[in-house]
Structure formats: C-alpha cells, structure tokens
Amino acid sequence: MTDDLRLGELLRHEADMFPTGPAPVEEVLRRGRLARRRRTAVTAGGITAAIGLVAALGLTDLARTGTTSPPATSRPSTALPSPAPSEEHQDPRTVSPYEAVGIGHGHSMALLPDGRQNYVVGTGDITAAVERAKQSLGDNIRPDSFSSGRSVDGPDILYFGAFRAKTLPARIQVRFDSGRTETAAVLTLPGHPPWGTYYVFCDASTADTDYTVTAYARDGEVLFQQRFDDVAAP
Q1: DSSP 99-154
Q2: Is there a contact between 214 and 225 (Cβ–Cβ < 8 Å)?
Q3: How far apart are the C-alpha atoms of 82 and 149, rounded to whole Å?
C-alpha cells in the first residue's frame, strides 16, 4: 500500500509539472525531461529536436549547424546551500515584444507576450520561428523557478532558459559544480511581467558539469535558486 501511495504522489507531481494540451514537435527543442544528455537528436528542416517527455512549450529554433543537449533534470533548490553573491551586476534589459535580439555567437532571442514564458532562441533569421511561436502556449513553470536548456555550437555552449518570479531578479548567476560561476544576461518585456529569460555562453569545459541557477535581489539576497543535474550522465 505504501508503494502505491508513493507512485500516486509521483504521478500527481509529474501532472503538476506539465500543462495539458498537444505538444508540437517543434516545441520539443527548449525543455524536456530527459535525464541523459547523450541521447540521439533528430534533425528536420534545419531544426534540431531533442526527443523527450515534454509539455506544450514555447517554440525554440536552435542552431542549424550545432547540436543540442536535452535540458538537465531540475531539483528543488532547498537541497543546496546558497552560493555567495558576486559584486558583478547584470541589470535586466527590457526588449520589445517579438524583437529578435542579438545575444552573441550568431544567436538571437525573442520574447513573446503571447502565452506563458513564451520565447524563441536560435541562429540566423528567427522571424519564422517567432511567427510560429505566437500560436504556442509557452512554458508553464512554477512561480519562483527556472526552466533550462543548452545549445552546443562548436566550442561554445549556450545555457538559457526562462524564469517566473514574484520579484524581478536584479542578477541571475549560473554556478557549475566545478566552482565556476557566470553571470547571465537577463531579458524582460515592457511593463514588468512576472517572467523573463536568461542566457550565458561558456566554453566546452562546462559540457559535463551539473549546475545551479540563482536569482538575486539588488541587495544580494537570494530570491530563489534551482539545481539542474544529470548533465554528465552517459
């Protein structure tokens, strides 16, 4: 009976994590629940899609010439101590709805007011992907939490995702288990909606390293954090 109750709790937890509705293949790109990074990816029409358990997510048009790794499995932040805040600040940047903002290394990101935590990230011209994403529900992440994804393009690894927060973070950091800490750039829409996106480029030395994403207030207080692990699983 105890095992049956435990199974029921797990099933209810998974149901809470994923909204109902269809899951378009193109929307598999930004977040899945795969625990293993090296599963085979399939490529169609220049878009690389990770195969995994997904909900109706915001569309992501990832690198045509690169490969993508399925997002790492997240765990509640209470399992980790708070990393020491850095003096480095990266104030959130407000961007126009649907605007394809260059974020470096040939990538662009656009935030959509349609749906929930709905955004696109990719290389080259992402206009068509933005138009398709207007029909998407977007993510459905919990308050004070992050989503996370990665795009590998040659020697560069792009770590990116969305956040949903009661208080807009003044800074977001990605801390790898190796001890390396990077400050992510943050994008938001006008009017201070309760969500935005973050991204940071790293070199290949971080490829097999689990990491924690932390949101800070301006005074250095930790607003919330989330660990993403199983990155290095074979």
Answers
A1: --EEEETTEEEEEESSSBSEEEEEES--HHHHHHHTT--B--PPSSEE--EEEEET
A2: yes
A3: 22
Distance, in Å, from the CA atom of 116 to the CA atom of 161, rounded to the nearest integer, reads 13
Looking at per-residue confidence, does 143 or 47 come out higher? 143
- Joined tokens for residue 125: 């011209």
Measuring CA to CA, which residue among 68, 89, 223, 59 is closest to residue 159? 68
Of 172, 198, 11, nearest to 85 by C-alpha is 172
CA distance 50 to 28: 6
| Strand 181-188 versus strand 195-203 pairing type | antiparallel
In this structure, what token pair is assigned to residue 134? 């207007």
**CB-CB contact of 215 with 186 (8 Å):** no
42-69 core/surface letters (b: 16 or more CB in 10 A; e: else) = eeeeebbbbeeebbbbbbbbbbeebebb
Side-chain half-sphere exposure of 1, counting CA atoms within 13 A = 0
Q: Are strands 93-94 and 181-188 parallel, antiparallel or unpaired?
A: parallel
- pTM assigned to the model: 0.66
Whose CA is closest to 39, among 73, 61, 69? 69
Give residue-wise pLDDT tens across range 32-70.
333 333 332 222 222 222 222 222 333 344 432 233 344
217 token code pair: 């207030």
What are the Cα distances from residue 121, in Å, to 12, 30, 54, 112, 175?
A: 31, 9, 18, 11, 22
